[in-house]
Amino acid sequence: MSCLQEMGTLSDLAYEYKGTGFSIVGLSADVPSGSSTAAAAKEMMTSSGGKFTNLTYTDSVVQTMLAGVNVVPTTKFYDSNGRLLTVVHGAKSKEGWINIIETVMNEKA
After folding, report:
1. What is the dihedral of CA 1, 24, 69, 36, to 10 degrees?
2. What value, to the nearest 5°, has the Cα angle with vertex 93 and ends 81 and 79?
3. Domain containing residue 32
């Protein structure tokens, strides 16, 4: 699955889960905040159909969110209190993401 396909899938899921208490927030791990590449990353996100919150990183994000990440993409699921629930490596199909999301939401309920 290409990055463009993944962005479209995540956008679909962000829309479908809106209002359920589940949110998708992306982190561009290779684009520092305020850099000249941030505009290019925003354009790539827009052109790929990405319609969910996507952040560029700061030093504090690298230290906390990216510590131990050695596979891209890495997806982390957190609860509303900021506790890490699970980590998923690699891209997934829409059905694969739905299964993971539903499992995490059901275990949290």
Report:
1. 90
2. 5
3. 3-108
What CATH number has the domain bearing residue 31?
3.40.30.10
What's the pTM value of the predicted model, to 2 decimals? 0.75
Show pLDDT as tens, one digit a residue, over the chain (109 residues).
656 567 788 888 989 999 998 998 887 766 666 666 667 666 766 666 667 777 777 778 777 777 778 888 888 888 888 888 999 998 899 999 999 999 999 987 6
**DSSP code of residue 71:** S
- How many domains does the chain contain in total? 1
Q: For residue 70, what is the DSSP state?
A: -
Cα(77)–Cα(93) distance, integer angstroms: 17
Q: Looking at residue 88, what DSSP letter applies?
A: E
